[in-house]
Amino acid sequence: MDLIxxxxxxxxxxxxxxxxxxxxxxxxxxxxxGHVRIRGEVGRVSRPRSGHVYLDLKxxxxxxxxxxxxxxxxxxxxxxxxxxxxxxxGRITTFGGQSKYQIVIEDIKPAxxxxxxxxxxxxxxxxxxxxxxxxxxxxxxxxxxxIIGVVTSPSGAVIRDILHRLRDRFPRKVLIWPVxxxxxxxxxxxxxxIAGFNAMTPGGALPRPDLLIVARGGGSVEDLWxxxxxxxARAAAASEIPLISAVGxxxxxxLIDYVSDRRAPTPTAAAELAVPVRHELLAWLGGQxxxxxxxxxxxxxxxxxxxxxLGRALPRPEVLVExxxxxxxxxxxxxGPALIAGVQQRKVKLSEASGSLRPAxxxxxxxxxxxxxxxxxxxxxxxxxxxxxxxxxxxxxRTARFDPAxxxxxxxxxxxxxxxxxxxxxxAGQSQTQxxxxxxxxxxxxxxxxxYKATLARGxxxxxxxxxxxxxxxxxxxxxTLEIEFADGKLVVGGKAGGATPKKAAPEAPDQGxxx
Length: 516
Known about the structure:
The chain has helices at 18-32, 70-75, 113-129, 157-169, 186-199, 230-238, 255-259, 267-274, 278-313, 317-355, 359-401, 404-450, 452-457, 473-478, and strands spanning 35-46, 53-58, 63-68, 85-95, 100-110, 147-152, 173-178, 211-216, 243-247, 262-263, 462-465, 468-469, 481-486, 489-494, 501-502. By secondary structure, the chain is of the alpha/beta class. It starts with 17 loop residues before the first helix and ends in a 14-residue tail after the last strand.
């Protein structure tokens, strides 16, 4: 027998095509492994435009491919993300086109509370890195909104608590957008509700709310998970209307609480944050009205007293007219004799002037004046002609030299020079005024610093005896009366310094001395 035999045809072994063998393997695997549940970590995740989801499930030693069809992926409450530990339920099958086996996933859930918390922390860190949690982007709530929009379930106790609390504190118009508050429909419906309220037209037939409240009662982490979805957090962050989140009890925290403008521990507390107490506002308004009335009354009394004080300082009207009335009587008594004397003086002057007038004298004067007039009239016409000709000649020469354009240019230059001088004078005046004001302020501060009043405030006193400042013990003994001035007033001491007895403190008088 040769070491290398010629190949012989396989005996009874059948021949399969590739497709037949792939189909046989598929039937064996699907028959052996029906529905299975696999626990593992999500690896690569791919979401093509078809809507299907392709992913890898892995542990520390092996990897299995998985696929979720579009209908299954759209119904999931929690979408798979890379690094999440999940439990996937489905059936094992093969994909002949790539000679591999895979799991067709029909349901996938996080593997316990730890996976949910890890996913939540991952989303929280991502949103925080984008700045959605910053306090600078949070808006203040309106003090008294006209319309309040509530996103919650219409059949739960939450909406009844909110409406009851609003009715007790300050009744307002409420628009309710019904949504599912748990389950796979929760996140998209809440996000659509927030966007829908923001899309309303202010003042329209259905006006846009001034404030939004997203509310839900307490529950487990799985029940509240819809409010931890990224789509809800981004919708709340993009809301132009101030938003209050009131999801769960006081100890429950969801992602919408971090991006909302204000978090309320309970839905009832959200209603209390939304509106003030009407009775407290009425009481405050009443108090302010009473204070205003009291202030007005006090002002009127003070002004009336001031007017009365000023009125007492004015003299009586009778006193004001007594002097002018007496002068009028005196001048009235002197008017008659003065008129008679004036008429007599003018009559004497008329007699003296009329005695010197004679008809012959008047005729001679008239004839002389007429001759002078005729002589001057004959000279007037040539003189006027010469004057008119000379002035016309001068006017013509000046008109020839007159140029409107040059005059306008000269006027514009003069105006600019005037504006520049006015600006310079104004600036210099302002600068000088500021400099003088600073000097005056400095001198005033120096005056206050050097004033003996400042020394008195530090605990010193000024002693005066018989009106003069006393600086020695001998001077104090000689003075009959000592006046001691402190920072808060003056004290008068009678007698000599050795045996003086205190007297009543005199009221503070104007400055009569100085320590300097």
